[in-house]
Specification:
The complex is a heterodimer of chains A (284) and B (224). Chain A folds into two domains: 2-225, P-loop containing nucleotide triphosphate hydrolases (Rossmann fold, 3-Layer(aba) Sandwich), CATH 3.40.50.300; 229-276, OB fold (Dihydrolipoamide Acetyltransferase, E2P), CATH 2.40.50. In chain A, 28% of the residues lie in helices and 35% in strands. Chain A has helices spanning 41-49, 97-104, 108-112, 114-120, 136-149, 166-183, 194-200, 218-225, 261-264, and strands at 2-12, 15-25, 30-34, 56-61, 64-68, 73-74, 82-85, 154-158, 187-191, 203-208, 211-216, 229-239, 243-250, 253-260, 272-276. The relative contact order of chain A is 0.14. Classes of the chains: A alpha/beta (284), B mainly alpha (224).
């Protein structure tokens, strides 16, 4: 189990502010830190990895103290055994894929695991390629494999899928789920994508202004937020003689709604709206 | 071929080689500091490193000559240790190091500044020390900057005139380098010899720079 209770001063968009995170991660649990950009999600990952120093608090991982301000314990990132997947992947451009993984290994048994891990992320055929020869999705897989090869105590994923197109995202989300089950380690993902968060997480921690304001199962978090409504955006307004057709974007699908002409005047293209879905019509 | 010519050319390249090697040892840590530091005194160090770019070489040469003179505090102490830098090869090396410092530091600093912080951090989270990260990741990625720095420092030392003339003078086999020799030959209206020196420097400098641009193109291709 992982216990985190830390405080740090953050330079936020609206001035200096104290961020404070309290979180317990169970064995094998997949938690997503969900929130707007600049809310302090990545900071928590960096605090756990030792890349930022909290001003006070404790981080305990499987009974081993990584940070304790009272006892003056602060393990360096090198000693913390985390698997960190960076947003820009941070692959080493001077090494091919095989060597990127080899660099991360700390003993012979880890080295022996390279072929297995490469096949798990479907990259065996590319092991001699260099990072600049790979697509975004492939780079992301290498970064994931590299983070896992040294058998970390926790997997930290900083928006690893944000730079990819929708199809690739979906594939990798499934892959991430499979790999997480296979490796059986706790994982902390930073995301601001609702569908990704719901799909991947056991629990969601909502981060707002440098604090975890709510933590629960994804379905509870998101149903509480917008009960019986769908968030949508108007992308086109088509006026006919008597009625008006609105094209609205819900998630990645476009749906059409007919409204009265008078009513249509109150809408604008680009406007965010909520659609009431409390009454579901039966399909005859 | 004229023995004096060969001796002068050998001395020129010996000076440039020694200067480049010492500058490489000093330049890499200095560039690392300048590329990553947020300390208040960073700007001061940056200014000092860049000074030789804008300062007339004769100014630097003049102050170095005064510093090296046995009448000065530094020169006196060095003299007591058995080191005399004025009008000596060792003095030329010291002068060249100071004068070519920005040519070594700037390309390396610029290569290092382009690296995202996450490259360092990724290596640290994989359990690698700062030194190992530097040796196995950062320096190999910054290879093009390091090669550029070495070549520019080398070429600049070969072509240096003002500082060398001020602190070295024109002693055959000790401080007379090619650029001084050219001046010397022109002064005595010996244009054939001046041509020989000039053309040799021209060809060698062209070849070195061409080689660098070709290798840099290759290594940059690997990284991008």
């Amino acid at each position: 189990m992982i216990y985190i209770d830390v405080q740090i001063d953050l330079n936020m968009t609206n001035g200096k502010k104290e961020a404070s995170y309290k979180l317990q991660i169970q064995k094998n649990e997949f938690i997503t830190l969900f929130g707007d950009s600049g809310a302090g999600k990545t900071t928590l990952l960096r605090l756990i990895a030792g890349l930022e120093n909290p001003k006070s608090g404790k981080i305990i991982v499987d009974d081993r103290v990584w940070f304790d301000s009272e006892k003056n314990i602060n393990l360096s990132p090198q000693k913390r055994e985390v698997g960190f997947v960076f947003q820009d992947y941070a692959l080493f451009p001077n090494m091919n894929i095989q060597k990127n993984l080899l660099y991360a290994c700390q003993n012979e048994s880890q080295k022996a695991n390279i072929p297995k891990l490469l096949s798990l992320v479907e990259l065996e055929s590319l092991s001699d390629s260099y990072p600049h020869q790979l697509s975004g999705g492939q780079k992301q897989r290498v970064a994931l494999a590299r983070a896992l090869i040294c058998e970390p105590k926790i997997l930290l994923l900083d928006e690893p899928l944000s730079a990819l197109d929708n199809k690739m995202r979906e594939n990798l989300q499934n892959e991430l789920l499979t790999i997480h089950k296979e490796f059986k380690i706790p994982a902390l993902l930073v995301s601001h994508d609702v569908s990704e968060t719901i799909k991947l997480s056991d629990r969601v921690a909502v981060v707002e202004h440098g604090k975890i304001t709510n933590i629960d199962k994804p379905i509870k978090i998101f149903s509480k937020k917008n009960e019986n409504t769908l968030q949508a955006e108007i992308i086109e307004i088509n006026e006919n003689e008597s009625i008006c057709k609105l094209a609205i974007l819900v998630g990645t699908s476009i749906i059409f709604i007919e409204v009265e002409k008078d009513e249509a005047r109150s809408y604008k293209v680009g406007q965010k709206i909520a659609i009431d879905v409390s009454k579901v019509a039966k399909d005859n | 071929m004229d023995i004096d010519f060969i001796e002068t050319m050998l001395l020129t390249f010996k000076l440039a080689t020694i200067t480049t090697i010492i500058l490489l040892v000093i330049g890499v840590p200095l560039a690392l500091f300048l590329a990553n530091s947020t300390k208040w005194y960073k700007s001061i160090i940056e200014t000092i490193v860049s000074m030789p770019l804008v300062l007339p070489p004769s100014v630097l040469g003049f102050y170095l000559l005064i510093a090296f003179s046995p009448a000065s505090f530094i020169g006196q102490n060095l003299h007591d240790l058995g080191i005399d830098l004025a009008f000596s090869f060792a003095g030329l090396v010291v002068g060249s190091i100071i004068f070519s410092l920005p040519f070594m530091v700037h390309p390396i600093q610029s290569a290092l500044s382009q690296l995202p912080k996450s490259i360092y951090e990724a290596s640290y989270t994989l359990g690698k020390s700062k030194l190992e990260t530097l040796w196995r990741v950062i320096l190999p990625i910054s290879k093009h900057g390091i090669i550029s720095g070495c070549v520019l420092a080398f070429a600049h030392t070969v072509g240096e005139f003002g500082v060398v003339l001020m602190i070295g003078g024109n002693i055959s086999g000790e401080t007379k380098v090619a650029s001084i020799a050219i001046y010397d030959e022109v002064e005595s209206l010996n244009y054939a010899m001046a041509h020989q020196y000039s053309l040799t420097l021209f060809i060698i400098t062209f070849a070195i720079l061409l080689l660098v641009y070709i290798t840099n193109k290759k290594s940059l291709g690997e990284i991008r």
